[in-house]
Amino acid sequence: MAEEAKVVLLGSGFSMFGMRAKIALAEKGIKYEYIEEDLTNKSPLLQEMNPIHKKIPVLIHHGRPICESLIIVEYIDMVWHSNSPLLPSDPYHKAQARFWADFVDNKVYHASRRVWISKGDEQEVAKKDFLESLKQLEEFLGDKPYFGGDIFGFVDVALIPFYCWFYAYETFGNFKVEKVCPKLISWAKRCMQRESVSETLADEKEIKGTSATSTRPRLFPPKFIKVSPKGKVPVIKFHE
Ligand SMILES: N[C@@H](CCC(=O)N[C@@H](CS)C(=O)NCC(=O)O)C(=O)O
């Protein structure tokens, strides 16, 4: 592979956003170099490639950076469009998929983070918001196998990384997603049958373990910066 044509992904630990990019690359069968970032000591490469937000994931293709996980997934889908399409070609269905992926970021993620970092009454409100957002997604899913219909696609990629975080949210918030959203859990188990997903998602107990103590608000403490033994990525580098 010519140096400039190389595909490189900057990711970190248990990031659900990084997992989205990994799943999309795996769905397309793209070989890439994975670089694990220490977010407590960001590399010059990350700062150069994402000078605005300095966040992972960043996809580097032909030496050029693409930032923001949903934009990365869409880029991967456009560049490698001949196999496993993730976004529908129909403009209305495409707009709908983008709407729900945005909903995952703006509703599910924010509520889940509040479940994670808060306590008491604040956590009760966060739990309610989190479950309500999942319920709305479950209603959109309906009886379809995947959010877009019969084919695993964009909204599935956007949401499924959160599944490995459910156990931690449930433990800290003392609730069960399955009780409220059984169809959503069946959908998640269906997604887990795909190698792209099962090989990417982190171990739920390991995720919960990162937060058992006062480190909870720090999602990615240095000692947990490692590559999951399940992660089958072509090249792994660690920054010193
Ligand atoms: N909206 C961004 C969110 C990315 C994000 O929050 N990344 C976190 C890791 S999960 C990060 O890099 N945090 C470092 C920081 O905030 O300094 C996306 O979808 O890519």
From TrEMBL:
<dbReference type="InterPro" id="IPR036282">
    <property type="entry name" value="Glutathione-S-Trfase_C_sf"/>
</dbReference>
<dbReference type="InterPro" id="IPR004046">
    <property type="entry name" value="GST_C"/>
</dbReference>
<dbReference type="InterPro" id="IPR040079">
    <property type="entry name" value="Glutathione_S-Trfase"/>
</dbReference>
<dbReference type="GO" id="GO:0005737">
    <property type="term" value="C:cytoplasm"/>
</dbReference>
<dbReference type="InterPro" id="IPR004045">
    <property type="entry name" value="Glutathione_S-Trfase_N"/>
</dbReference>
<keyword id="KW-0808">Transferase</keyword>
<dbReference type="GO" id="GO:0004364">
    <property type="term" value="F:glutathione transferase activity"/>
</dbReference>
<feature type="domain" description="GST C-terminal">
    <location>
        <begin position="90"/>
        <end position="211"/>
    </location>
</feature>
<dbReference type="Pfam" id="PF02798">
    <property type="entry name" value="GST_N"/>
</dbReference>
<feature type="domain" description="GST N-terminal">
    <location>
        <begin position="5"/>
        <end position="84"/>
    </location>
</feature>
<dbReference type="InterPro" id="IPR045074">
    <property type="entry name" value="GST_C_Tau"/>
</dbReference>
<protein>
    <recommendedName>
        <fullName>glutathione transferase</fullName>
        <ecNumber>2.5.1.18</ecNumber>
    </recommendedName>
</protein>
<dbReference type="InterPro" id="IPR010987">
    <property type="entry name" value="Glutathione-S-Trfase_C-like"/>
</dbReference>
<dbReference type="GO" id="GO:0006749">
    <property type="term" value="P:glutathione metabolic process"/>
</dbReference>
<dbReference type="InterPro" id="IPR045073">
    <property type="entry name" value="Omega/Tau-like"/>
</dbReference>
<dbReference type="InterPro" id="IPR036249">
    <property type="entry name" value="Thioredoxin-like_sf"/>
</dbReference>
<comment type="similarity">
    <text>Belongs to the GST superfamily.</text>
</comment>
<dbReference type="Pfam" id="PF00043">
    <property type="entry name" value="GST_C"/>
</dbReference>
